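Changelog excerpt

This revision adds worked examples to the README so contributors can see how folded entries look when concatenated. The first example is reproduced verbatim below.
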Amino acid sequence: MAGGMNKRGGHPYGTMAERIAATKAAAASPAPDPAPAPASAAPSPEPGRGPDRLRHCWVRDQHGRLPALLLEWRRTASGWQGRVVHPVPDPAGVGGWILVEEWLPAGTLDQA
């Protein structure tokens, strides 16, 4: 078969054995110390917010069970609500999807 899986010398990556050896050598070497943050660095985000707090979840609504990103929680008089971003069918009826950001009751969210 022309152009099969054996392409020795045709690329700069080396043979499989050479790539494995390089990966093992890189894993065995100590990681360099991270550079200290400059004094003018922005403060870290408040706890409970920011990209490190995003969680995948499922939204149950009239469109079925859809994937979502849970951005944050809040407590209201009616109970807990999650702020989520999730797809919904395009109301223009062109067969596509749009993204919606909204606060939903905790009972409509499932853990992923």
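The second example, added in the same revision:
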Amino acid sequence: MTAVALEARPRIAGEERSRVALTEEARDLLITLMRRHGPLMFHQSGGCCDGSSPMCYPAGEFLTGDADVLLGTFRLPAPEGMPAGLPSAERADAAPADAGGAGGPAEVDIDFWMSREQFEYWKHTHLTVDVVDGRGSGFSVEAPEGKRFLIRSTLMED
């Protein structure tokens, strides 16, 4: 079983149990990536090829809508020197992140989205975002690092 370092705050209405988590390696890579790209987000499309891997984008660069489900939100420490962006915590529907010193937030929220169609197949699973060596899609911000995010899943118990 994969060691979980951080569970996401549930974001599906009426749910109290997290559906998505990060390994320590995924959490550490996200903090490194935020230093370069600012606030981030995940989207899991479920398409072919790299569609089975979660894609990581600068927050707001992948447009989500009614065809997507917000599964959870990770709260991570904002790395020093992180470029400005629009953290999900600044959206009206998100809980506010703690204000930090030096004009920046102390914490940043990272949303994990999934296409609604894919969620229908995976709604009975708990997802853990992990990192492995290898090059993923060129659109995901971790690709130049020689790493890629991947999903490890387990069945959720009722």
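Reviewer comment on example two: The radius of gyration is 15 Å. Residues 24-37 form the longest helix (14 residues).
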